[in-house]
Design a protein that fits this description.
single chain; alpha/beta; Amidase signature (AS) enzymes; ten-stranded mixed sheet; 12 helices; 10 strands; 39% helix; globular
């Protein structure tokens, strides 16, 4: 493959043929460098991880299912270091091109998967989403992308990050291809309730910059015409910054629980932003983590009470268009990350599915409209995106 986008890994490449028949026959896909492929080392976006781990003995179920549906694995894609960023800039392996905005970052941590899909190197691509790692690059690169209901898609053979929030997701240039992957990966345990109530909150819209707010508001008007009305939630999302802090505390404590021993023993060299977040994660004491987890469970119950079966919450996927490449670290890795996480944490805390619909604005960088559904409403969101 002629990878003109810098989307695919070179140190641990893989490629596999798909089944001869299947509804994805003739399609190609890529897999983020967190999915195991038997006989190959999974790199986790970090060269020291690649150096210190053995080849996988089995292939991740998600990869196997796409192969079984007829899709061909074209390669393994670059991700952010240990998936702990939303930028898509990897200090070791480079930054994949954002084909829809070449002067801007692709978003992370599923950066290579988004780049390869947006640039037409593959039809679809697998990613993972903990804090926004499918939703943000989908928004930045003008793609359909879904974060699935927590626990619905089998994640064996995927490197764990923060299991309370980790889910498998995927990218596609069309809603039809997004649905095709869903047919392969989503078990028949979903919520069959048809979407019937559209929700929005001014508190969520005001988190976005004016251009994003305008584009998303216009898209909401079109959806309202389909539903006939839109219900407005007012004070329900007034404490988003507190929610974000709770999410980030639980996330960081789980990341350190999973990978702290390896980091301490190996002393890998991490890039800016990631290095500081991991250092902070190492200092979270058990009492702080336990208190954050209790609050998280309370918030999960509250959010699931707001978004009932048949409800669809509309909001901006990301508060800005993609930042320019090589923007200051303090802006991209701290200020913007916190700004984005206030919106992204909602579905993560509640374990809900969230789907990005690309809003392409002429020559301007893409903007994303998100639809959040109730538990198990993944297929309903995909069907809504196809209308």
């Amino acid at each position: 493959m002629n990878d003109t986008l810098g989307a695919f890994v070179r140190a641990n490449p893989v490629a596999l043929p798909g089944a001869v028949t299947g509804w994805l026959a003739g399609k190609s896909f890529a897999a983020k460098d967190v999915f195991d492929v038997a006989g190959s080392i999974t790199g986790f976006g970090q060269p020291d991880w690649l150096r210190t781990h053995a080849p996988a003995t089995a292939t991740a179920s998600a990869v196997q299912r796409l192969l079984g549906a007829g899709a061909r694995l074209a390669g393994r894609t670059i991700c952010d270091e240990l998936c702990y960023s939303l930028s898509g800039e990897n200090v070791h392996y480079g930054t994949p091109l954002n084909p829809r905005a070449p002067d801007r970052i692709p978003g992370g941590s599923s950066n290579g998967s988004a780049s390869a899909t947006a640039g037409g190197l593959v039809d679809v691509a697998l990613g993972t989403d903990c804090g926004g790692s499918v939703r943000v690059p989908a928004s930045y690169c003008g793609l359909y992308g879904i974060r699935t209901t927590h626990g619905r898609v089998a994640d064996d053979g995927v490197i764990p990050f923060a299991p309370t929030f980790d889910v498998i997701g995927w990218f596609a240039r069309s809603a039809a291809d997004l649905a095709g992957v869903g047919q392969a990966l989503l078990p028949a345990t979903g919520d069959a309730t048809a979407p019937r109530r559209l929700l929005m909150s001014p508190a969520l819209l005001t988190r976005a910059e004016p251009a994003v707010r305008h584009a998303v508001s216009q898209a909401m008007l079109k959806l309202t015409a389909k539903f006939g009305s839109m219900d407005v939630l007012h004070a329900e999302f007034d404490e988003l910054d507190s929610w974000r802090t709770t999410f980030q505390t639980v996330q960081a404590s789980e990341i350190w629980a999973n990978h702290g021993a390896w980091i301490t023993a190996t002393q890998p060299q991490f890039g800016p932003g990631i290095k500081e977040r991991l250092a902070a994660a190492s200092t979270i004491d058990p009492e702080t983590a336990a208190a954050a987890r209790r609050r998280l469970m309370d918030l999960r119950t509250r959010i699931r009470g707001l978004i009932q079966p048949g409800d669809v919450l509309c909001l901006p996927t990301a508060p800005r268009i993609a930042p320019l490449r090589n923007s200051p670290t303090d802006d991209v890795e701290i200020a913007y990350r916190n700004q984005a996480m206030a919106l992204l944490c909602i579905a993560g805390i509640a374990g809900l599915p969230q789907l990005n619909i690309p809003l392409l604005t002429g020559d301007a960088p893409p903007i994303g409209l998100s639809l959040v559904g109730s538990v198990g409403a993944d297929e309903a969101l995909i069907a809504l995106a196809m209308e």
